[in-house]
Write a structure and sequence with these properties.
By secondary structure, the protein is of the alpha/beta class. The protein folds into two domains: 72 residues; 118 residues, Trna Endonuclease, Chain: A, domain 1. The chain contains five helices and five strands. A five-stranded mixed beta sheet has the order 1-2-3-4-5, with helices on both faces. Helix 4 links the parallel strand 4 and strand 5. Helix 2 crosses helix 5. The relative contact order is 0.11.
Length: 205
């Protein structure tokens, strides 16, 4: 028997079905590309916003520097203690002895340079005897100074040990000082004492 011809309408349906499938695939590809593009644009906008924020913050910081310097100059709220770095070790100890007296300490005396047992200045205030070690150099003061001050306090039979410097202290030095009771007088305390005294450190005296 001769084969029947497929209906022409069925072939047309398949053709249009293929066209629709192709069109759907094209729409999906366009949609995926659009989503990817939006994500990329979103990231770029975030990066630009962060960069703009950092730029504005840097500009504001630069613009504020003259006003900050003026404010500090007028109020004295800056690290006066850094001026002490121009002094020699002996000049620093002599200067500290002077401002201690101006801050209400009594019987202020320097120890002998050789064999000072880790203490540079002895003084009294409020019924307590202080053993003070002076460290005048750039950088953070470490554990050794705390150990020496504590040993010097015991040697001179004092009540309070102090490490005094125009800068700061290491974290380990602060931990050791907390456990031993040694006082750490850094730039803030020294700056305050200098303000109370009103005397400026002078080198070459």
């Amino acid at each position: 028997m001769p084969k029947r011809k497929q209906p022409r309408q069925s072939l047309i349906g398949r053709f249009f079905g293929a066209i629709l499938s192709l069109f759907d695939a094209l729409l999906k590809a366009i949609g995926d590309a659009f989503v990817a593009l939006m994500r990329l644009l979103g990231r770029l906008i975030v990066l630009l916003a962060k960069g703009l924020f950092l730029l504005i913050r840097s500009l504001l910081h630069l613009l504020s520097l003259p006003f900050v310097a003026l404010y500090r100059g007028m109020t004295g709220k800056y690290n006066r203690a850094s001026r002490c770095l121009r002094l020699t070790g002996e000049e620093f100890e002599r200067y500290i002895a002077e401002i201690l007296e101006d801050n209400g300490f009594k019987h202020v005396q320097k120890t002998i340079q050789s064999g000072d047992q880790g203490v540079d200045i002895l003084c009294e205030r409020g019924g307590h005897r202080y053993a003070i070690q002076c460290k005048n150099y750039q950088g953070a003061v470490g554990n050794a100074a705390v150990q020496e001050a504590y040993a010097g306090m015991c040697y001179y039979d004092c009540d309070i040990a102090v490490v005094l410097c125009p800068g700061r202290f290491t974290a380990s030095a602060r931990e050791l000082a907390d456990s031993t009771g040694v006082l750490l007088w850094g730039e803030k305390r020294l700056t305050h004492m200098m303000q109370v005294s009103g005397k400026r450190p002078k080198s070459g005296q």
